[in-house]
Each structure stands twice: as C-alpha cells, then as structure tokens.
Amino acid sequence: MALIMANDSYRAVDPALYPGDVPPASSGSAVSWSAVSAGTVAAIALTLTLLTLGSAFGLASVSAWPGVGARPTTFTIGAGIWLIVTQWLSVAMGGYLAGRLRVRWHGLHGDEVFFRDTAHGLLTWATATVVMAVITVVAAALSTVAATPIDAPATAEAAEAARKVAAELATFTGLSLVVGAFIGSVSGAIGGRLRDLHP
Known about the structure:
Number of helices: 6
Largest sheet: none
Structural class: mainly alpha
Strand content: under 5%
Number of strands: 0
Low-confidence stretches: 1-11
Order of helices and strands: HHHHHH
Mean pLDDT: 81
Helix content: over 70%
Shape: elongated
C-alpha cells in the first residue's frame, strides 16, 4: 500500500481534468452546513406535517366500538406504509434543498461536485434522522414517567406476538432508513445539478 501511495502519478493532477487557468477552489470546508441545516429543518417540518395528517387519517379510520372501522392488521399495515412514505418524501425534499441551496463550486471536476452533492443529501438525511431519534427517545422517556403502571398478566402467547411485531417493525424501519439514505443522496445530487445549471 505504501508503494502505491508513494508513486508520483497518484499525486499529480491530470491537466486535462484540471486546466492550469482555472482558479483553485477555496481551502474552506467542502460541506455547506447552512444548506444541510436548511434541508434538515425542511425535512423535519415536512415529517411533522405528514405525521399529523397521517394521525388524522388513522384516527378517522378506527372506532371504539367492536366490529366498526379498520381492523388492527389493516390499520397497522396502513400506518407502516404511511410512515415509510413520510420518511422518503421528507428526506427527498431535505436532500434536494441541501443540494440546491449550497454555494456554487468553481474549478472542481464534475465527479467531485457530484460526490459533494450526494454527501450533502446524505448529511441532511443523517442529521434529520438523528434529531428525530432524539425527539422520539425523549418523548418516550417522558411518557413512561407520567404513565401509571398497570399490572397486566403477560402470557407466553402475548409475549411472542409482541416479539414478532417488534421484529417486523425493526426490519421495516431499518430498510426504510437505508432506502431513505439513498433517496437523500440522489435528491442532493439532483438539487446540486439544477443549482449548477442556473447561475
């Protein structure tokens, strides 16, 4: 590995890709944190809006009376799909805004610009995901403090059913987050490309 890195051909800049008359890029950070922050705020705002709308649809579809309204299985599947779509739409908008709002980079190869745009989309997704996870954990912790414990007997069947539901939820959440990271990266690249087309 040291022999490969010591080779001068890896350190030299290709003059065809980087002409000498192009001014060098600034030595500042390659990440435009203001664009990432704006994309994160937009993604979180859209997430909260769609979650509120989804709650309204969910509450309208269920009933306290037996046999009326959506069945629990149908409700759970619908809620899961809504949460996945909410996450994907939010990260798409946040990543697009991060790519579109970043400063224009001069004197960089197109591949480097593409990489930076995808990184902006990925950072927007990551920041929004971490913020929403912290909010969720804090809300769950606060709700358990105020809740009155209920002494309900737990059967083996109920514990097994809860385990299966938790495993399915974790699987779908993980897959949704991986796809969301991809969507955020692609959206950042699309936003950055459109940013460079319009000076």
